[in-house]
Design goal:
- The protein is built from 10 helices and 12 strands.
- It is globular and about 80 Å long.
- It is α/β, with parallel strands linked by helices.
- The termini are far apart.
- Strand 9 and strand 10 form a beta hairpin.
- A 5-stranded parallel beta sheet has the order 1-4-5-7-12, sandwiched between helices. Strands 6-8-11 form a 3-stranded mixed beta sheet.
- It has a single domain, classed as 2-enoyl-CoA Hydratase, Chain A, domain 1 (Alpha-Beta Complex), CATH 3.90.226.10.
- Helix 1 runs antiparallel to helix 9 and helix 5 packs across helix 6.
Length: 296
């Protein structure tokens, strides 16, 4: 009898272990969601604004561990438009962007809704907002990003091909198959449509001629689609950029970790904090030292 009782206790412990293990991810997810809501509420109160997040991480399909890249889709635009509609006129909106881009339709809906909002709009980009994310950022009165955070070109893609490349190939001498010509025709329309949306957004911040030039530059495929446009370049382009993401928004991003099932590729041990100013032996900035050396 004692052996039988001990066996049952062992199986009970095993079942309890499996039950707790299955519940742990759900509990962690709820705790993380609660922490996000608290942080969003704190930022909203501090900024006196509605704070919206549009953050896409690479996710994994349950059990199989297959990576799934998220992007801006219709579900996103529906949720963001609802948040914008529920924001009273005159109240500011802050949208935190961390995305590789997505559907032109969804990004255009969000951008136009932000443009039409009666109140100040600020886009915060802690790391990157490419393609459709950049189109959304163009609707903001101010773009706050870190010095090495990036926006990108907004030229449309047709499947796996850039629309501008399809148009370029179709214009080359020689015979082209029907599919290439059809895709080139669609590509010309897509380029014109995206450029029009960008021009309408940019005309809020600059005179129409400059807005038209910048919209064409961003939408016409001058760069590869993944080319990063960082703060210094964005400033030269005349966009309303401010460098320096606040600590509260950085803390918010830490509440959107890469999903479980993927090993962290980067680890580090923070160094001992240095006193304000330049490091020891660097009382003179490098670029000034080099200039002085050149003059000698």
């Amino acid at each position: 009898m004692l052996e039988l009782a001990a066996t049952f206790q062992l199986w009970d412990l095993i079942w309890i272990f499996f039950i707790l293990s299955s519940l742990q991810p759900l509990v962690q997810k709820q705790l993380l969601a609660s922490a996000r809501r608290r942080t969003l509420a704190a930022i909203a109160a501090k900024r006196d604004a509605t704070v919206i997040t549009l953050i896409h991480r690479q996710e994994t399909i349950s059990l199989l561990g297959i990576p799934l890249v998220r992007h801006i889709d219709i579900d996103d635009s529906e949720s963001v438009l609802r948040a914008i509609r529920e924001t009273p006129p005159g109240r500011a909106i802050e949208i935190v962007l961390h995305t590789p881009g997505g559907l032109v339709l969804a990004a255009s809906q969000i951008a136009r809704a932000l443009r039409d909002h009666d109140g100040r709009v600020v886009a915060v980009v802690p790391h990157y907002a490419m393609s459709g994310g950049t189109l959304i950022a163009l609707a903001a009165d101010e773009i706050v990003l870190d010095r090495h955070a990036a926006l990108g070109p907004i030229d449309p893609q047709l499947g796996q091909y850039p629309a501008a490349s399809l148009v370029e190939v179709a214009s080359m001498p020689g015979r082209h198959d029907d599919q290439t010509l059809i895709l080139a025709d669609v590509g010309r329309k897509a380029l014109r449509q995206v450029e029009t949306v960008a021009r309408e957004l940019l005309e809020r911040h600059m005179e129409p001629g400059r807005a038209r030039e910048l919209a064409r530059l961003l939408a016409s495929g001058v760069w590869t689609h993944d080319h990063p446009l960082m703060a210094s370049e964005l400033e030269q382009l005349g966009l309303p950029v401010r460098v320096g993401v606040p600590d509260a928004e950085r803390a918010l991003m830490r509440l959107y970790p890469q999903p479980r099932g993927r090993e962290a590729a980067v680890e580090y041990v923070p160094g001992r904090p240095l006193p304000p100013g330049l490091p020891p032996g660097r009382e003179v900035p490098r670029h000034r030292s080099r200039t002085a050396g050149a003059e000698r």
